[in-house]
User: Which sequence fits this backbone?
């Protein structure tokens, strides 16, 4: 089918306001009477609070209020209500809010917060799940079994295990009896930070009319609204949440993060809006981190290369609160098999409390962490079987008719991983790799990937569409633009569905829960699929309304009418027609009587039949929409320095339908570079006392321009999906997924060294080369 | 202390606290919020403005240092509704994603082109080496700057 607007490189509607500096982000908002908050972090990562002395702080100039968590009985969280807005009797991580000062200016708040004196009784600190899970470990949450949690979640009482998830397919662990060859390994994906350029922040205002107004750099306005209403015991309708432009998220601005804390602080100064924006340091220490996943994995195959069984155990150092990591753990667990079929699966995931900043969503949501293990082990297993790693994978790829670990059946419309793999094989592995020389080792590596979103049973996306009197269309939705370009997607999908040029379609800018249609939250690479489908459904309803009115005007049956964006006309005689713009407010007849209704429509779309996991087997319709892909790297290892240089990186995804090639390519290149950062230098390091050692860009090194590989290949395959608009699938997170194993597999190819944890810094590489020499 | 300076061709005379950062003067006093604060430590380049023709991190410049000097911010690039060529090219190349680094990137690029209208790729890379972009749209940013320079 020929598309008019799909597949075209339309520019972003928000590019101009961003490039002129006129786009408004959270920190750009000024409200008359606004106060500023500064938050105190504790000296210890795990300690009882003995006393907080706020008297000196209260006397400081400009101070309006000093707030602590004393007597706070709020517990909040959608999954596990284990969070408090401020530490109450103890602190559980070094970035936890202990007290706050509200002052007339930020400088005054910052000066006063330093005057707060807190007395602590330090407790043992755990920064790693393995330590926190030891039998005699001190409990980070003493009575976690009392927390309200979703019925599908289970803690292990009197331990630091906040949730245990298990999946069994086929004979489970016994399936290994059928295996001829087995490999296993332990892989660690350390804690990292999304570290978006815009630090997270919020403004909360308890208003005189008993309503709450909030602004946040968040991707989940409706969750914030619900949680604020619930926490402060008021109707949801009386809470209004605004989302301005968001300066990047990559996951960590989803879920409730800082909003309830700022609300708690603001509740002490009713009538005055209170603003808090994280410093860069606080953005690392006191918002959400990513990863922190250790994967133990075992794969078993027949001699002919057919995989039979997988066993995986995910130990997730989730941080001080489990509300945000718990679903990352579960997703990492049931997707740990990667894009392959196994008859027998035994997968376990432990979400463990640790004294570190809570982990939340990070591009890929558990998939890159556990599939790092899968893709490294697939190479190792191919070696052990003495098979070509491509051929070995080909035997096992998920394809039409395969059943994934969670029990879902794959259809042709789920895409073609093998086709993506072939593209990478051609791009990276065609011909011989360069011979080792005086300065470098050379290597090539491959990894395949699959990802489904982590949905929720209520994860729908709404769309409101209205036609204006000139036939132009305005669209309002609740999806948060965070750089991914969803506004362009909305315009292109709507243009195609309505057959109206994109210039005549206006896409909403900021989100305001007072006006915006409901959306669960903008996560999981789901907007194009679900949001795009909601746009098409709304467009179809709108066209139906136009036809209904036109049928009265043209005195013809609705099913004999066609629509082309400009006119509704009689199919057998197109000269009998009425202009769409004349139908927008209903049709005004020559005698001034209006017939028909206003051309407006609302619709929503969710993942069809998304379900909870079965309590016994852990299986269910947990993915629904999968995107498959493959990635490959050609690298060099500098002998002198140990530096790994990526010379060529190739990615291929079956994204069903490319809506905007310019944006899709940009998303891939950005995700790949982020993955190179994870593979080679990003790690948020904690000392033994639970303090972050590198909470700033100087030492948490995110990729810079000079880290871009000299050559990049991006290739899209278009086997249309069944759910998304025009067959499109999600692509936001996927380019990040397999970069790490592709590079590590290439490092093995270059040096013969198997790495089991990242990042591979030059120091680690140099050490490994030296060790190899010693052992030779 | 009383200082005189120019921002986007407009002359100002202001009484400022000597420890005030140029970034705060622009954002809080002049309400020019196009200049963004990403780290406050001179590590990300989001707050880049042009001072006397040179790109500087406005979080590292104190108000007294701008006395008698001329500053250009992102708001000074477009002329009424006419975009600067760099802004136009950023848009065409999809070099704007979340947009938070964009003003800083544009100002680093503008400072380069003011001095060197036809830079090489390497000179472009050097000029924006101090600007971080977590969306990692660097290739498109370099292409946009190159295109603006060639035009």
Assistant:
């Amino acid at each position: 089918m020929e598309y008019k607007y799909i597949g075209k490189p339309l520019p972003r509607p928000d590019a101009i306001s961003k490039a002129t500096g006129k786009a408004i982000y959270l920190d750009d908002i000024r409200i008359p009477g606004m106060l500023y908050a500064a938050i105190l972090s504790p000296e210890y990562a795990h300690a009882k609070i003995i006393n907080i002395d706020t008297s000196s702080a209260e006397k400081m100039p400009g101070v309006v209020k000093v707030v602590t968590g004393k007597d706070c009985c709020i517990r909040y969280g959608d999954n596990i209500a284990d969070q408090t807005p401020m530490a109450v009797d103890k602190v559980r991580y070094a970035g936890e809010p202990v007290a706050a000062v509200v002052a007339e200016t930020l400088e005054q708040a910052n000066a006063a917060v330093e005057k707060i004196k807190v007395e602590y009784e330090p407790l043992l600190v755990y920064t790693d799940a393995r330590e926190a899970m030891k039998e005699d470990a001190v409990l980070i949450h003493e009575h976690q079994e009392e927390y309200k949690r979703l019925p599908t979640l289970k803690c292990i009482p009197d331990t630091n295990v906040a949730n245990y998830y298990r999946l069994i397919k086929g004979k489970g662990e016994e399936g290994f009896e059928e295996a001829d060859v087995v490999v296993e390994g332990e892989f660690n994906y350390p804690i990292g930070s999304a570290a978006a350029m815009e630090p997270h922040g919020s403004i909360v205002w308890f208003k005189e009319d008993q309503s709450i107004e909030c602004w946040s750099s968040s991707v989940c306005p409706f969750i914030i609204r619900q949680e604020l209403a619930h926490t402060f015991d008021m109707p949801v309708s009386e809470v209004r949440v605004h989302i301005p432009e968001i300066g990047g998220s990559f996951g960590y601005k989803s879920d409730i993060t800082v909003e309830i804390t700022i609300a708690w602080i603001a509740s002490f100064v009713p009538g005055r809006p209170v603003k808090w924006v994280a410093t860069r340091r606080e953005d690392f220490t006191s918002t959400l981190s990513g990863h922190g996943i250790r994967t133990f994995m075992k794969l078993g195959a027949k001699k002919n290369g057919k995989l039979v069984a997988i066993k995986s155990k995910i130990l997730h150092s989730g941080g001080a609160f489990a509300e945000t990591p718990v679903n990352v753990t579960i997703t990492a667990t049931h997707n740990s098999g990667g894009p392959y079929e196994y008859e027998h699966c035994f997968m376990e995931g432990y979400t463990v409390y640790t004294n570190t900043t809570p982990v939340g969503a990070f591009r890929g949501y558990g998939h890159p962490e556990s599939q790092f293990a899968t893709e490294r082990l697939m190479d190792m297993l191919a070696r052990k079987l003495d098979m070509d790693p491509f051929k070995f994978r080909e035997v096992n790829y998920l394809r039409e008719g395969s059943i994934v670990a969670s029990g879902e059946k794959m259809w042709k419309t789920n895409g073609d991983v093998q086709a993506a793999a072939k593209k990478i094989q051609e791009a990276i592995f065609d011909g011989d790799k360069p011979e080792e020389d005086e300065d470098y080792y050379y290597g090539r590596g491959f990894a395949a990937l699959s990802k489904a979103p982590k949905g929720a049973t209520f994860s729908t996306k709404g769309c409101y569409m209205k036609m204006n009197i000139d036939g132009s269309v305005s669209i309002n939705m609740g999806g948060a633009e965070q750089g991914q370009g969803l506004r362009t997607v909305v315009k292109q999908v709507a243009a195609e569905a309505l057959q109206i040029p994109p210039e005549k379609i206006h896409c909403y800018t900021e989100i305001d829960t007072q006006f915006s249609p409901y959306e669960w939250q903008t996560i999981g690479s789901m907007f194009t699929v679900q949001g795009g489908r909601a746009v098409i459904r709304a467009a179809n309803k709108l066209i139906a309304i136009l036809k209904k009115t036109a049928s009265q005007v043209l005195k013809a049956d609705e099913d004999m009418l066609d629509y082309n964006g400009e006119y509704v006309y009689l199919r057998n005689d197109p000269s009998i027609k009425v202009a769409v713009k004349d139908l927008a407010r209903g049709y005004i007849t020559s005698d001034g009587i209006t017939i028909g209704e206003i051309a407006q429509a609302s619709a929503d779309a969710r993942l069809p039949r998304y379900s909870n996991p079965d309590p016994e087997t852990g299986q269910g319709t947990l993915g629904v929409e999968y995107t498959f892909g493959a990635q490959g790297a050609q690298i060099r290892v500098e002998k002198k320095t140990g530096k790994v240089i990526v010379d060529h990186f190739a990615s291929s995804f079956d994204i069903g339908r490319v809506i905007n090639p310019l944006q899709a390519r940009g998303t891939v290149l950005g995700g790949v570079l982020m993955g190179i950062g994870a593979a080679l230098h990003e790690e948020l390091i904690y000392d033994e006392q639970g303090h972050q050692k590198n909470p700033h860009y100087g030492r948490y090194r995110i990729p810079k321009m000079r880290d871009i590989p000299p050559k990049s290949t991006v290739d899209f395959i278009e086997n249309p999906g069944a759910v998304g608009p025009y067959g499109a699938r999600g692509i936001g997170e996927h380019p990040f997924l397999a970069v790490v194993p592709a590079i590590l597999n290439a490092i093995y190819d270059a040096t013969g060294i198997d790495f089991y944890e990242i990042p591979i810094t030059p120091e680690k590489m140099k050490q490994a080369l030296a060790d190899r020499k010693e052992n030779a | 202390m009383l200082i005189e300076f120019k921002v986007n061709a407009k002359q100002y005379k202001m009484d400022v606290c000597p420890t005030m950062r140029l970034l705060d003067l622009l954002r809080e006093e002049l309400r020019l919020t196009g200049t963004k604060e990403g780290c406050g430590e001179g590590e990300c380049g989001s707050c880049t403005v042009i001072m006397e023709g040179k790109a500087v991190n406005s979080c590292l410049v104190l108000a007294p240092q701008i006395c008698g000097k001329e500053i250009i911010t992102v708001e000074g690039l477009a002329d009424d509704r006419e975009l600067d060529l760099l802004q136009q090219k950023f848009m065409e190349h999809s070099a704007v994603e979340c947009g938070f680094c964009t003003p800083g990137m544009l100002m680093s690029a503008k400072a380069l082109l003011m001095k060197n209208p036809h830079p090489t790729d390497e000179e472009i890379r050097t000029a924006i080496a101090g600007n971080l972009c977590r969306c990692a749209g660097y290739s498109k940013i370099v292409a946009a700057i190159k295109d603006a320079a060639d035009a």
Observations:
- Residues 404 and 519 of chain A are 28 Å apart (CA to CA).
- Chain A has 17 helices and 29 strands.
- The longest strand of chain A covers residues 307-319.
